[in-house]
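Quick review question:
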């Protein structure tokens, strides 16, 4: 009865969903790829993988794709003869995953519309499906289970904000959760929460956070010099970077930058909006503030930046390179109630981070960063300016926090191995 009602409703919801994807694609200047979303995978792409066993890993967007990277590398090493297919829901996720050399094929995840799901599964015929974090789609899970395809939830988490919503609709999610072969959660709290929502306790386990297994190392001076040349940033400029910023945060960063400029000769700002399509909006803020800037997409490496200018990044896939040349990194989504972003990215290259009070989506990571002394949490934009000033003033303080971040990464790895052990039970 549940699936009958769900599919009846999904039929009527399909029109607004398709309209939304058209609008989203047009507004962002990207193809809608509706054929793939309805399960039509080009035969030319599938013909070269027909005779090999296939691992399907789904990562919704950019964050999940980056978190999946250690697992993808491990899967490629352990199963060299398997095809690795990565699917995404968002265009930015697709753009990120497409750059991963570990994958053989990259597609859009089908709508959870029964014909689309059946068509995709019949075309791809995976040996196993691995779903990153908490993507729960009733038709997809049911059809995979009907074909006896193992379903693994990897790096699962239930944020504070999501838990109440999931719990309220547990009658909806329980049906799908019961069909997962294993649910690998990040923490004990995540295990308790997903069991409360309806996951089978005997198939739920704590496997750790794959994000701790991203490669980490201190960037060498030669690497930093090369990257700065690529971005037209003179070697002697000290870089304040703001990564994954959201609406409402860029103005705080610009104001902080303007406060610091008279105090330090040789300061430079990099702004990286979480969604590149917001670049025009951020550009207008920079123009109104009187800050000279250039966009990454039209950057000429022969024309060097100067003190007091800014680089506005309107591309994707360059975040780690940009963190590698930062001296101080603000991690966005944290000064506004968005839930924060991944503090491990700057930590993995030995760069101290500054972040705001709204870290509900990365609570465990934020607590570890503070515990290890790898970053500074601020409560307000005023504190942001003061903390950035303190870090810019002291190279020694930046060095200490950066090394603490690398120690955090060394001490908290191992999730990839634990996930791989679970996957191996079904391959």
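Suggested answer, residue by residue:
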């Amino acid at each position: 009865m549940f699936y009958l009602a769900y599919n009846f409703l999904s039929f009527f919801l399909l029109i607004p969903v398709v309209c939304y994807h058209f609008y989203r694609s047009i507004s962002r200047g990207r193809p809608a790829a509706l054929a793939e979303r309805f399960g039509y995978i080009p035969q030319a792409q599938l013909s070269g993988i027909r005779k090999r066993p296939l691992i399907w890993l789904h990562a919704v967007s950019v964050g999940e794709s980056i978190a999946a990277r250690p697992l993808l590398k491990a899967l490629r090493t352990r199963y060299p003869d398997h095809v690795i297919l990565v699917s995404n829901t968002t265009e930015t996720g697709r753009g990120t995953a497409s750059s991963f050399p570990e994958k053989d094929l990259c597609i859009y995840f089908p709508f959870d519309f029964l014909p689309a799901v059946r068509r995709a599964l019949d075309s791809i015929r995976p040996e196993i499906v691995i779903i990153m974090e908490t993507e729960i789609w009733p038709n997809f899970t049911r059809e995979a289970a009907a074909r006896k395809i193992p379903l693994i939830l990897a790096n699962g988490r239930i944020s504070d904000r999501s838990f109440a919503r999931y719990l309220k609709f547990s009658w909806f999610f329980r049906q799908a959760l019961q069909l997962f072969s294993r649910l690998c959660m990040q923490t004990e709290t995540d295990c308790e929460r997903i069991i409360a929502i309806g996951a089978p306790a005997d198939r739920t386990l704590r496997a750790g956070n794959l994000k701790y297994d991203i490669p980490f190392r201190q960037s060498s001076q030669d690497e930093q010099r090369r990257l700065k040349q690529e971005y037209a940033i003179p070697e002697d400029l000290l870089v304040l970077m703001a990564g994954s910023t959201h609406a409402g945060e860029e103005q705080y960063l610009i104001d902080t930058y303007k406060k610091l400029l008279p105090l330090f000769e040789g300061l430079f700002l990099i702004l990286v909006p979480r969604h590149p399509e917001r670049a025009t909006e951020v550009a207008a803020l920079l123009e109104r503030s009187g800050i000279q800037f250039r966009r990454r997409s039209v950057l000429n490496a022969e024309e060097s930046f100067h003190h007091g200018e800014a680089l506005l990044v309107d591309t994707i896939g360059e975040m780690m390179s940009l963190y590698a040349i930062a001296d101080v990194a603000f991690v966005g989504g944290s000064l506004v109630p968005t839930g924060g972003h991944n503090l491990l990215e700057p930590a993995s290259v030995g760069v101290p981070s500054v972040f705001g009070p709204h870290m509900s989506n990365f609570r465990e990571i934020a607590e570890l960063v503070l515990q290890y002394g790898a970053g500074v949490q601020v409560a307000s934009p005023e504190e942001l300016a003061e903390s950035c000033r303190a870090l810019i003033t002291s190279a020694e303080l930046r060095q200490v926090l950066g090394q603490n971040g690398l120690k955090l990464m060394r001490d908290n790895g191992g999730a990839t191995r634990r996930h791989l052990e679970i996957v191996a039970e079904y391959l």
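Why it works: The chain has a mean pLDDT of 91. The longest helix spans residues 2-28.
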